[in-house]
């Protein structure tokens, strides 16, 4: 990894002399190549070995999930200190990319699937969230809450006004996902000024079931936990979905304006994150 991107994207100043911990778990930003490789190794284990994504020959050999965007990202990590002090302690990760990093990479990862031009023209700093995963045995509320607290601290440190990224529903059969996709379209479609749209050549219709035919409570319960988390924060989805055959998923673009985050959840994270160091 070159030194320039890491220097550019790691200028955030800590807010106070306090870390984010929960029992044996701690959230931090990756600071070494060893940290980043641990995140890539965990991603490979979850995406390819557990979820059945199709690895490239290079990925199969290295057993790392990696691409060019990793070089311009900050990598948020959850560590379990009972597992050790090295890379074996990494049990959760989130990839964070801001404007400066995207500029170096030639764009955001999400732009490979969605037209995000309306997001990119928004004033202030924007943040792409992606490649989120946790190790088996750590897909629990405490782990996810710690990850969200880490993101909240990062948002405050870097004055983020808007967050976005691809979020996945399992499977690549839109018809089998018609209830969830239609629910999202009818109830959580982003306003036009910040609406991302699936690229024409990849576009999959989400409006498959009339709104009146959907049991909203049941449909919401069927959504993956990560998408539920974005919606609880007051998030939206873009127009149209994209089928990712390599990862056997159907992707939607999620958008969250930090100024509009649901008070019930945002204030909870705000109290702890405003005094936290992510470094």
What's the short version?
The chain is of the alpha+beta class and 279 residues long. Helix content is 34%, strand content 24%.
Describe this structure in words.
With 279 residues, this protein is α+β, with helices and mostly antiparallel strands. The protein is 34% helix and 24% strand. The chain has helices at 3-9, 33-50, 57-62, 99-105, 117-120, 141-158, 178-188, 216-221, 225-232, 263-273; strands at 20-22, 25-29, 74-80, 90-98, 114-115, 125-134, 160-170, 197-198, 203-204, 236-237, 241-244, 249-257. The strands form two sheets. Strands 1, 2, 3, 4, 6, 7, 9, 10, 11 and 12 form a ten-stranded mixed sheet that branches. α6 links the parallel β6 (125-134) and β7 (160-170). α6 crosses α10. It is globular. Residues 1-18 have low confidence and may be disordered.
Features:
279 residues; disordered N terminus; 10-stranded mixed β-sheet; two-stranded antiparallel sheet; alpha+beta
Helix and strand arrangement:
Elements: H1 3-9, E1 20-22, E2 25-29, H2 33-50, H3 57-62, E3 74-80, E4 90-98, H4 99-105, E5 114-115, H5 117-120, E6 125-134, H6 141-158, E7 160-170, H7 178-188, E8 197-198, E9 203-204, H8 216-221, H9 225-232, E10 236-237, E11 241-244, E12 249-257, H10 263-273
Parallel strand pairs: 6-7
Antiparallel strand pairs: 1-2, 2-3, 3-4, 4-6, 5-8, 7-12, 9-11, 10-12, 11-12
Helix pairs in contact: 6-10
> Which structural class fits the helix and strand makeup?
alpha+beta
The string of secondary-structure elements, in order, is: HEEHHEEHEHEHEHEEHHEEEH
Q: State the distance separating the first and last CA atoms.
A: 19 Å
Oligomer kind: single chain
Number of helices: 10
Our estimate of the beta-strand percent is 15-25%
Q: Using the alpha-carbon principal axes, give the shape.
A: globular
Low-confidence stretches: 1-18
Helical content, roughly?
A: 25-40%
Query: Major β-sheet, in short?
Result: 10 strands, mixed
What is the mean predicted local confidence, pLDDT? 88
The tally of beta strands, per DSSP, is 12
